[in-house]
Structures are given as structure tokens and as C-alpha cells.
What we know:
The complex is a heterodimer of chains A (about 120) and B (about 90).
Chain A: H1 2-30, H2 34-60, H3 66-94, H4 107-113
Helix pairs in contact in A: 1-2, 2-3
Chain B: H1 3-27, H2 31-56, H3 60-84
Helix pairs in contact in B: 1-2, 2-3
Amino acid sequence: MSESVSENVGLIIIVVGVIFDLLGCIGLVRLPDIYNRLQAATKCVTLGTCMILVGVAINIGLADGGGAKALICAAFVLLTSPVGAHALARAAHKAGIRLWEGSVVDKYLEVDSGKKVTGAKV
Amino acid sequence: MTIATASLIFMVVLMFSSFLCLYRIGAGPTAPDRTVAIDILGTLVVGFCAIMTWQTEKAFYMNIAITWALLSFIGTIALAKYLEGRGFDE
Lengths: 122, 90
């Protein structure tokens, strides 16, 4: 009884994670510029993959080593994926990629150049 | 629903997501767009390996997932440093 309950809970968590992955990749294709794509894809896919890993760990159990490795991998993805996304956004801004023309504020440019910037035409 | 059917559906959805990433790698107008798509593709492969572990009940697929996450992170950081125009030791 309790085994089937934990299997169903793990299955639901995996389903939600796969849906998050799919929505993040749709955002990666649909959104207009690099910064929008970065925030949509990174946050959705990180959460989705962590939920897949946790669901698999619940389903296969911690006994034979696979579940513990899945939890370690989830912690690792949760730590490294935002760091990589932050480095990429900084690199794109320093490389001179313009914001989308619908964007209204560029705080990083204000901090960098020390003056107030309005609008996206920088 | 058996484990085989459920994992097949999950794999098909993840493969469709991977093809969306491949579209962005091919069509992305700038180099950081392609780098973001490569990073996301690596994270999707980690989830794919987890589904494979669940389906086949072989724990060594999780080793592949951990290694892939590590190498994807290092590659993303290296490409970001390169795009920024700095050396790796700064």
C-alpha cells in the first residue's frame, strides 16, 4: 500500500517536471531576445530537471545507490545552473548585445556608466 | 500505466524539447543565444538519464547524468568567459 502511494507521488512529480521542461523550451523558442530566453529557459528547465531527479529518487528508493546519486545530481544542478545563467547574461551584456526594444530598464548599464538610462535605445 | 509506457511518453516529450533547443542552436541570431540553448540541452540530457535510470533500473545511468551536468557547467562557464573577452584566470 505505502509502496504504491510513493510510486504515485514520484510519478506525479516526474510529470510536473517534464511539463516544466517542455514549457521552458517553448519559451526558449518563442521569446524575443537573449535575456528573455535566458530567464525563461533556465528557471523552468532547472526546476523541471530537479523535479524529475527527485521523482526518480522517490520511485527507485535510496537502497541501491541510484536514488542517492539522483539527489546529489539534483543539488548539483540546482547550484550550478543559475551560476552559468548569470555568467552568460553578464557575458552577453559585456559583448554588447542590445536589449529587445520593448524592454524598459537596463539597471546593469546604469550601474556601469553611472548615469540614468531611460528606454532600451542605449 | 506501466513504467515502460510512462517513461516512453516522458522520453518523447523530452526529445521534443531537445528539438526545440536544436532549433534555437541553429537559428539563434547571436552567439550567446546558441550558448544558452547548449546549456539547456545539457540540463535536458540530465533529466533524460534520470528517466533512463527509472526505466531500466540500472543505477549507472545516474553516473552519466552527474558527469554530464559537471561538463555542461564547465563548458558554459568557459564559453561565457570567451564571449566576455577575458582570460580564464581573471
